[in-house]
């Protein structure tokens, strides 16, 4: 078999056989197929697509290109959650403790932030001492002991995706639904959970810019999960404004603690209750959404979920005093209030711009090698639908490097304020299964 023939076949709209997909992924993973041929194939896939069977086979081959985590020594049905990423998305850190407090084991491998989106691992690492590089044995021990562990992805997981993603990044072949779906699902499936809940976001702060594309991506991933024997469901959620109010690592951890103490932002809690109730149903703790929501709300009212987070932080070497005393988190040199220049209602809020401002303050990475300042970021005081008077504070900027005129203008430009009343947009459009 020759890679050039496969490229030609896909270029002309043909279907790749199971053997051909195996040849391509096995060959590329083991450096038998060069980057230039894989680039041509990825571009051919972008133009011609993959059908459902090809996408499932591709995912399965990618998943088997490296280690597959065996979580069978953890008792109970393990449900993993994955978000396609957004600004201010700290859901896993609230949802994980809530679901784990309902006795569902949460063994989660998370990622780091890049560009305008933050990463769960970076947020967690704002707690002094906490580490996320834990051996598989300790990971499993921790989940068995306290039902919750959130760690970095094993270096051996899906090497095919590592190589392909790096190539896609520099060949304009990232935004292709079958490639995104197989990339995400190969990693989720290799992580060993029994069921998967996806939070597929759409909007300017998300990877998928429209609801329609988000739904196609969600359906593609659900089909992959089901074909490979996993109960897979997806929320379709709105990322046209940041989730919650805080953007930035330790600021987001403080918002997580507030939420688990019962006074977090409504949208964040609602997303966690909706996602969590699907996870409890997937874990067969109940078959009823209302019961599931009550079980989850109880974990907040009783502070059980907060204690669960504290236990996880301690188990991973972190100073758990920060959970009970969030005022311990280092303060920035300055907190600058950005005030509205007009009266009216917030019509729109550009999540992408605000995520980029937080990154430029030092809270995120432009490239993988950048180091980050965990203390900086933004806390929104007004969101879509809110009434604003002239001089009201729109955003508090936490900074160690001042605020340039350019960044200040970007924050102003992120807000659209109009005279007419504005309804809040729906946060969750649909639950697909
Ligand atoms: N996230 C991934 O893991 N893979 C993609 O292709 C896109 C987003």
Strand content bin: 15-25%
Radius of gyration over C-alpha positions, nearest whole angstrom: 22 Å
Write the element-wise H/E pattern from the N-terminal end onward: HHHHEHEHHEHHEHEEHHHHHEEHEEEHEE
The total count of strands amounts to 13
Strand ordering within the main sheet? 1-4-5-13
Helix content: 40-55%
Average the pLDDT over all residues and give the rounded result: 95
How many helices? The count is: 17
Task: Please outline the helices and strands.
Layout: H1 3-11, H2 18-29, H3 35-48, H4 52-63, E1 79-83, H5 91-101, E2 106-110, H6 120-124, H7 136-146, E3 148-152, H8 159-170, H9 177-190, E4 195-202, H10 211-227, E5 231-238, E6 246-247, H11 249-260, H12 266-282, H13 289-301, H14 304-315, H15 321-324, E7 334-339, E8 344-349, H16 351-363, E9 377-380, E10 387-388, E11 393-399, H17 405-414, E12 415-418, E13 428-432
Parallel strand pairs: 1-4, 2-3, 4-5
Antiparallel strand pairs: 5-13, 6-9, 7-11, 8-10, 8-12, 9-11
Helix pairs in contact: 1-3, 2-4, 4-9, 4-10, 5-11, 5-12, 5-14, 9-10, 12-13, 16-17
The structure holds uracil (URA).
Write up what this structure looks like:
By secondary structure, the chain is of the alpha/beta class. The chain is 46% helix and 15% strand. The protein has 17 helices and 13 strands. The protein has helices at residues 3-11, 18-29, 35-48, 52-63, 91-101, 120-124, 136-146, 159-170, 177-190, 211-227, 249-260, 266-282, 289-301, 304-315, 321-324, 351-363, 405-414; strands at residues 79-83, 106-110, 148-152, 195-202, 231-238, 246-247, 334-339, 344-349, 377-380, 387-388, 393-399, 415-418, 428-432. The strands form four sheets. Strands 1-4-5-13 form a four-stranded mixed β-sheet, sandwiched between helices. Strands 6-9-11-7 form a four-stranded antiparallel β-sheet. It is globular. The protein starts with a helix and ends with a strand. The model has no long low-confidence stretch (mean pLDDT 95). It binds uracil. Uracil is lined by residues 165, 174, 179-180, 183-184, 207.
